[in-house]
Design brief:
Strand 2 (about 15-20) and strand 3 (about 25-30) form a beta hairpin. The chain folds into two domains: about 1-90 and about 245-260, ATPase, nucleotide binding domain (Nucleotidyltransferase, domain 5); about 95-240, Nucleotidyltransferase, domain 5 (2-Layer Sandwich). The chain is built from eight helices and nine strands. It has about 260 residues and is an alpha/beta fold. The chain has helices at about 35-50, 80-90, 130-140, 150-155, 165-180, 185-205, 220-230, 245-260; strands spanning about 5-10, 15-20, 25-30, 60-65, 75, 95-100, 105-110, 115-125, 210-215. The protein starts with a strand and ends with a helix. Bound molecules: adenosine-5'-diphosphate. Adenosine-5'-diphosphate (ADP) binds near residues 10 and 220.
């Protein structure tokens, strides 16, 4: 059975998905690093070895994400908005909207039942409201990115982070550390600040939507999931691996292209 490959070359991580007959057979997620093409090529080689397939077993490769134009081995390049929409609709049929928070951008996309994009808004100009904001704060607090969610949920008195700019917010965090504020309260304040920012960005698009998917690496953070759910007043749909939704969408588009559906 021939494989279809979806590659999401993100600003922070690269995701490679192998799909056959609409099912994800294998995936890898690794830091993109300074050379996005080399990273994607090596990851595809690793994926082929791990699944014991050769280049002849690959029917097509679709690239998406910030670095998609660099992925010269791809047969097709598709925007991440289109791929996220397709991936989300395939994972949660009937989904009405997507909140995607990645390493350097956040986007809110409204979709129809087939995964077609109806409207979207994107923040790619500012680190606040993205994973970058969290990564900067993790360094200041000497806390692992995986620990942010659980720590945030254990806070009883979240601090207020009033600066919207990452650089000023970092100074606020440093002064909280100097004052001896418990780390969980600082982390909860950080999660709340990102949630508020993304909610503010997407409120217009999300109004009236009840089935909303949360994707991107930041969707692994339970503190942000809760922060957004509290503001939206509903439970978000979070896929088992929210980081690979764009790559899954790219693979789906590859499959549809082969069938002549797009
Ligand atoms: P991009 O597609 O833009 O490269 P990703 O969707 O891979 O970005 O998201 C990367 C971000 O996800 C990181 O900046 C980090 O803040 C966050 N992240 C990654 N892994 C985790 C984790 N285990 N828990 C919480 N957040 C995470």
């Amino acid at each position: 059975m021939k494989m279809v490959i979806g590659i999401d070359s993100g600003s922070t991580t690269t995701k490679v998905v192998q799909m056959s007959e609409g099912k994800v057979k294998h995936y890898l997620v690794l830091p993109t690093g300074p050379n996005s093409e080399r990273t994607a090529t090596r990851m595809l080689q690793t994926a082929q070895q791990e699944c014991n397939i050769s280049a002849d077993d690959i029917a097509t490769i679709v690239a998406t994400g910030y670095g998609r134009a660099n992925i010269s081995m791809a047969n097709k390049q598709v925007t991440e908005i289109t791929c996220h929409a397709k991936g989300a609709a395939s994972i949660f049929p009937g989904a009405q909207a997507i909140i995607d928070i990645g390493g350097q951008d956040s986007k809110i996309i409204k979709i129809d039942s087939t995964g077609r994009v109806l409207d979207f808004i994107m923040n790619e100009k500012c680190a606040a409201g993205t994973g970058r904001f969290l990564d900067v704060m993790c360094r200041v607090l000497e806390v692992g990115i995986d620990d942010i969610g659980p720590l945030s949920l254990s806070s009883s008195e979240p601090v207020q982070i009033s600066s919207t700019c990452t650089v000023f917010a970092e100074s606020e965090v440093i002064s909280h550390v100097a004052r001896g504020t418990p780390v969980e309260d600082i982390v909860a304040g950080i999660c709340s600040a990102i949630s508020a920012r993304v909610y503010g960005l997407g409120r217009r698009i999300l109004t009236g939507c009840t089935k909303i998917i949360f994707t991107g690496g930041v969707a692994k953070n339970q503190g942000i999931v809760k922060g957004l759910e509290d503001r939206l007043g509903l439970q978000l749909l979070v896929p088992p691996n929210p980081q690979i939704v764009g790559a899954i969408g790219a693979a789906f588009i590859g499959q549809e292209t082969l069938k002549g559906e797009v």
